[in-house]
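Crash report, auto-generated. Payload:
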Amino acid sequence: MTMKQEKKRIYLRAALGLIALLAVLLALDNLSFVPSMLLTVLRKGAIYALVAVSMNLLNGFTGLFSLGQAGFMLLGAYTYAILTIPAASQKSIYQRYANGGIGFSIPELLSKPLGGFGLLLGVIFCLILAGCIAALFAFLIGLPVLKLKSDYLAIATLGFAEIIRAAVVYEGFGPLTNGSNLLYGFTSFSNFNITLGGFTLHLETVMPFLFSGICIAIILLLINSTYGRAFKAIRDDEIAAEAMGINLASHKRMSFIISSFFAGISGAMLAMYQASVQATTFKSSMTYEILLIVVIGGIGSVSGSIIASFLFIASSEWLLRFLDNETWIGGFRVPLLRSGFRMVVFSVIIMAVVLFFRKGIMGDRELFQKKPASAAKAAKKEVRSK
Amino acid sequence: MSENVLTIENATMQFGGVVAVDNLNLKVDKNQIVSLIGPNGAGKTTAFNVVTGVYAPTNGAVWFEGRKIIENTPHGKMKKLYKGQNAGQYSHIIAPTPDKITQMGIARTFQNIRLWKSQTVFENVLIAKHCRRSANLLSATFRLNADEEKRQREECEELLKVLGLEDVRDELATGLPYGLQRRVEIARALATQPKLLLLDEPAAGMNPQETEELTAFIDRIRTDFNLTVFMIEHHMDLVMDISDRVYVLDFGRLIAEGTPAEVQNDPRVIDAYLGVDEDA
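Recovered output after restart:
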């Protein structure tokens, strides 16, 4: 009885917290004195949080070291962009290809009869479809690749991500992908802004949080379900997992496909945020950025990944920007500060994390989780003995 | 005549040119405790791995509850290399993976304990219930399987209580003393609801007192869970105390079988194993 009441209280608190968060975001979005950099960090951070959590599901919870995340994001981004470019502007966007584009736009089709609600419905549908395309490719890639272990899997998935990136700009796919040219003009987060009589209610930060939040909640539900527990068993000891009746092949495939599904959605959201898509954005360095977030946050911790993604985006987009700019104090030119120095500092941070904080910010714990004291103690002991 | 649970029929396991198990024939009847003994390297664990699907035998078959669950015949590269007997007797290839074997009702423990290290005792046992789920991915994610989940959790609690593990329920499994870890491994195997339990050296590394407790424990779970037990063991006290039948392997070959008393007095066994290994 008390357990149930306690659970109810926890849920109530969580709901209130979420509503408060959304209210704060709504306020930030609409107050004019809020620095635009903060909004950038929040928007991009929310999107990176989703892809980091999806990578953590695979690397941290199932123990499959895969580096294909950028490739699946690219698939998601392109799928979303192709489906949502307004029919009228397709001709000018695909100017290099006669008969380029698909000739219709799903949000447009739905918003004609249903208005704003149709727009939302269309975007959600396209996001899910973006995830499905990424998942489909994950299924196909997984057939040969998931038989590999550890580093070999990482190399193979990295290779596939690069192949996808190269294939998208192939001229033959031009009428669909616009070759190596930009795709733009599709439905983005700013399309959700509500204009009423000269006043505009901005929702550009609220929407990515909402979408990311729902996706991460689903991943969390999965991780805490019987399937999530099976994933962890595979990570801890594959042989024991198989001996206890867990089908390795199907569970690994499942985890790979789900992770790619959400990577696809986050790719689509990144496209929405940037308002344009180009294959060169999704280089392998993007995968490394996400991997960095996962490692800093703690492999096997969802909240760690979320925290780390905001930290990472904040420092790379905002706080460490000054490192890239030549700075003069009076007649004195501050040494080292020049374009590219930011990445040097980043590398040093990575090394420091790997050397001294191997478990990252959160280790494998979660933010609001009570672990038994003995477990925490044993974990500490393990760290020390290493 | 009691009901037969497991039959290993002409099983040969050959790795390259090495014959690890040579034409093994073995029967385990319902509710019996059957031991497989033999000196180091005799092929006992290999025989276990054949039964549990880790290795497909090079030749031979395994029957479980009257059903042929594993069958193989030398094929491919092995066709030329095969040195064992009965090469032409089998024609099919049935090679289920270990998880399928577990779902059929054969559970095992490991010689070197393999608990999931980041999980508590309770979680270790609960994860083993995964193979008895009816929920699919979606229904599990969106908690449509709440009843099943609740039932499985209760079953696990019950199991821990019966095995005397409820005090260490929330401890990390690998942080426990050795004897308890063994017990958790058995609890985990029992959670898969097996009909046949394979124990690979359950008393390894235990002192005489712990071994005695384990003997009583194995005997008890056999009756409590209506189990058939097939085990590999080196502790002769344990083997002779509770076994209904004993099989002796040496260099992959079966050299003796019978009741503990028969085996103890078999000169071949004494030669190969007991005479050298025991003080008596």
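Post-recovery validation: Residues 146-162 of chain B form the longest helix (17 residues).
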